Amino acid sequence: MTHPAQPKASHFINGAYVEDTAGTPIPVIYAATGEQIATVYAATPTIVEQALSTAKEAQKAWGKMTGTERGRILRRAADIMRARNHELSVLETYDTGKPLQETLVADATSGADALEYFGGLAGSLTGEHIPMGEDWVYTVREALGLCVGIGAWNYPTQIACWKGAPALACGNSMVFKPSETTPLCALKVAEILHEAGLPAGLYNVIQGMGEVGAALVTDPRVDKVSLTGSVPTGKKVYAAAAAGMKHVTMELGGKSPLIIFDDANVENAVGGAINGNFYSSGQVCSNGTRVFVQKGIKEKFLARLAERTGAAVLGDPQDEATNFGPMVTENQMNIVLGYIEKGKEEGARLICGGKRADMPGFFVEPTVFADVTDDMTIAREEIFGPVMSVLDFDTEEEVIARANDTEFGLSAGVFTNDFSRAHRVIGQLEAGSCFINSYNDAPVEAPFGGVKASGVGRENSKEAIKHFSQVKSVYVRMGDVEAAF
Ligand code: NAD
Fold it and tell me: Tens of pLDDT along 110-147?
């Protein structure tokens, strides 16, 4: 019997599901059981061509519609997503293995927020009037044209919406390629957008591995590429886009610092560290995986952390009582277990977790290492799993320098009750998305993105509009034209 997660077809192009079984089969494995629940096929060159040519053509009329008309469709799509939240959350759980307790509140809902927010902004995207004496300049905020979105596997619905919503609001079309690991959810986003009245061809989803992504990025018809992925992929995609002088947004990896001062509220700091390391089983780019704890509260912090982490409920992700799911794939599980072994070998002190959970599926126990030093592998490399490194520090100056000593710069957090210190420290941290007495909040109203190797550009908020549109300026002369000859 066909599993309910099996999509009608692999791709969604020009307003309809499209299949081409000549492409490489991509099995979809449910991470909680290891069973294959669906198959999609990588896009063949014919499929890539269909998606790009339809998106290029459809954009022309869409870009000419009023923002209010475009926004109405996006807001309708948001309503449909919310109405179908349960069904979409179940699918997100099959696609990623994340527990339903999370997906019910963090995925389709976050996608709907983006559709609603950018739908609301669409009608207000205007240029300005710049007086020049008798003359004037006016500016026009124009669409870029055809945008490509490429997703990572941790938030398939959210990523499809965070890229699609601002792109469409600004009058662009999109071809979106989900991660080959989680190909299911973006198809639903496309389906819902069209149900909401999006004209055919404006939001297309095609499947495939990196080579399909590369074919999209290098196509001369593409005006912009927005990637969510790892730093090595980001470097390749950025370089390929640069060769065609295309706009880019790069949302890449991180190894973010979470700094906890002696005067912090310990319960809140422990909560922040749990949210910033174990949500989605640690598969979150902005996670605060280097937890710097000032020496005065170190043992108290570790004791409460171990106690609360011990209360994590691992189990069937479709059971709403489960709050900690498996790694997305067997391969990712093995990578994470490899890092845990490295942590042990390099002398970090294991506080809790530290092994594969004794159950079916790709579960790794939530793991905390203490006495981690800056040079250990687990403190330097992005693990993308539930492995928290706790490091000690003495002074503010010292911790700022150590926090910044990384190629990454996605996020940073500070817990303290001294607000002057909170702002002083945050002001010196090299990171794009920061938190004071909190961690990992990502509302659509706030800009999201990294500095240094963690990325270029911003998603969400009004900032995203700048990255999906361009400004034309027009000088208007009222008098005669003076010329030298
Ligand atoms: P990945 O880099 O392996 O793949 C990302 C996407 O890029 C996939 O769809 C893949 O098929 C595609 N791709 C690979 N090679 C390509 C190429 N040469 N040209 C075009 N496309 C190509 O990343 P992943 O393993 O899917 O995701 C995990 C990574 O994503 C982590 O590093 C994580 O930090 C990062 N991430 C970042 C954010 C953010 O917003 N900053 C959010 C989620 C995940």
Answer: 999 999 999 999 999 999 999 999 999 999 999 999 99
Which residues form ligand 1's pocket by a CB distance below 6 Å?
150-154, 177, 179-180, 209-210, 213-214, 217, 228-230, 233, 236-237, 251-254, 285, 382, 384, 410, 450, 455
Catalytic residues: 163, 251, 285, 459
**Whole-angstrom Cα distance, residue 314 to residue 323?**
6
Which atom of ligand 1 is closest in space to residue 217's alpha carbon? 20
Instruction: Report the pLDDT value the prediction gives residue 1, as an integer from 0 to 100.
Output: 81
Checking if the pLDDT of 46 tops 90, the result is: yes
3-state secondary structure of 255: coil
The whole-angstrom separation of Cα 192 and Cα 221 is: 26
**pLDDT tens readout for residues 376-421:** 999 999 999 999 999 999 999 999 999 999 999 999 999 999 999 9
Q: Is 224 helix (H, G, I), strand (E, B) or coil?
A: strand
Q: Do 175 and 12 meet the contact criterion of CB atoms below 8 Å apart? A: no
The label of the residue with tokens 């991180």 reads 254
Encoded amino acid at 46, one letter: T
Atom 43 in ligand 1: residue holding the nearest Cα: 285
Work out the percent of the chain whose per-residue pLDDT is above 90: 100
Query: What is the CA(213)–ligand 1 centre distance, in A?
Result: 10
173-177 and 203-205 beta bridge pairing: parallel
The residue whose CA is least distant from atom 4 of ligand 1 is: 229
State the Cα torsion 427-395-436-429 to the nearest 10°. 30
Point out the ligand 1 atom lying closest to the alpha carbon of residue 454.
41
Residue 102 reports pLDDT greater than 90: yes
* pTM of this prediction exceeds 0.85: yes
Contact 240, 217 (CB under 8 A): yes
Query: How far, in Å, CA of 169 to CA of 480, rounded?
Result: 39
**DSSP state, 459?**
B
* Cα 179 versus chain centre, distance: 12
Cα within 13 Å of Cα(193), Cβ side: 37
